[in-house]
Specification:
Its main location: membrane. This is ATP-binding cassette domain-containing protein. It is a peripheral membrane protein. Pfam families: ABC_tran. The chain has 271 residues and is an alpha/beta fold. The protein has a domain of 71 residues. The protein contains nine helices and ten strands. The strands form two sheets. It has a six-stranded mixed beta sheet, sandwiched between helices. It has a four-stranded antiparallel beta sheet with strand order 2-1-4-5, covered by helices on one side. Helix 5 packs across helix 6 and helix 6 runs parallel beside helix 7. The two termini are 37 Å apart. 40% of the residues are buried. The N terminus and C terminus are likely disordered.
Length: 271
């Protein structure tokens, strides 16, 4: 049986990682990563390129194989769990990526409909416009309206700005109705004005819906402004985890100096 939290009657974290190890060949990328993300919490994950952030995010959504350790989503363990249980747990997770991952041939409305794919037995076919339920089509429009793009429903991605495309991606995530949101560098492809607008929107939706958010950013000023909690990685390990107001800028700067990369800090050497 897949492991769950010890006391089901006691609220646990929305997301928990325990002693995660991920390797690619001889390269140890995650070296014992552990953290909890509370229900309704918005945290920012920081660290230099190559520190293991992206691998951690990929491990959380099942795209990077975990050598050892465990991940719980809403109390359900997913590492080594039966496929049905894994799929059910991952339906609780929504994703916003640096690349918007929109289907270029489809309208904004059709792209948002894909957010319901995991909830329909016919998969992709069940969310195509010709086959989608009326309630799903209406909900997709409501999600577009929520991100301020109801008037762009028939537009294809190429007809939208970068910020608008990311808004469509957020609407698609909303369509999934997740409890945990993973946002991996959601503004890296945007100019500063559009990036701030996207973060304003993302954080507002997360707070209004009572969701839990783990978001990676490179911009320290924005991380301090938006994140209530900062988690810092260096060389495959978490070296900082604290409420934003208690972290000095020098501690954040230190994440980007010295042996910050996983290929620059051998296993057993403190990062």
């Amino acid at each position: 049986m897949p492991q769950t939290f010890a006391d089901p009657a006691r609220p646990g974290p929305a997301l928990r990682a325990q002693d995660l190890h991920v390797s690619f060949g001889d390269l140890k990328v995650l070296r014992g990563v552990s953290f909890d993300l509370a229900k309704g919490e918005g945290a920012v994950l920081l660290g230099a390129n190559g520190c293991g952030k992206s691998t951690l995010m990929r491990a959380l959504n099942g795209l990077a194989p975990v050598a050892s350790g465990q991940i719980w989503v809403e109390g359900q363990a997913i590492v080594g769990a039966p496929l049905r249980a894994v799929r059910a747990a991952r339906r609780q997770m929504g994703y916003v990526f640096q690349q918007f991952n929109l289907v270029p041939q489809l309208s904004a409305h059709q792209n948002v409909l894909f957010g319901a794919m995991g909830q329909r037995p016919l998969g992709v076919l069940g969310v195509m416009n010709a086959f989608a339920r009326a309630e799903d089509r209406e909900r997709a429009m409501a999600c577009l309206d929520r991100v301020g793009l109801a008037d762009r429903a028939t537009h294809r991605p190429a007809e939208l700005s970068g910020g608008q495309q990311q808004r469509v991606a957020i609407a698609r995530m909303l369509m999934q109705a997740p409890r945990v949101v993973i946002a991996d560098e959601p503004i890296a492809s945007l100019d500063p004005k559009a990036g701030r607008e996207v973060l304003d929107l993302l954080w507002r939706i997360v707070e209004e819906e009572g969701l839990s958010l783990l978001c990676t950013l490179h911009q320290l000023d924005l991380a301090e402004e938006y994140g209530r909690r900062l988690i810092g990685m260096k060389a495959g390990r978490i070296v900082l985890d604290a409420a934003t107001g208690s972290v000095e800028r020098a501690e954040l700067d230190a994440l980007y100096t010295g042996a910050a990369r996983v290929d620059a800090a051998p296993e057993g050497v403190a990062a």
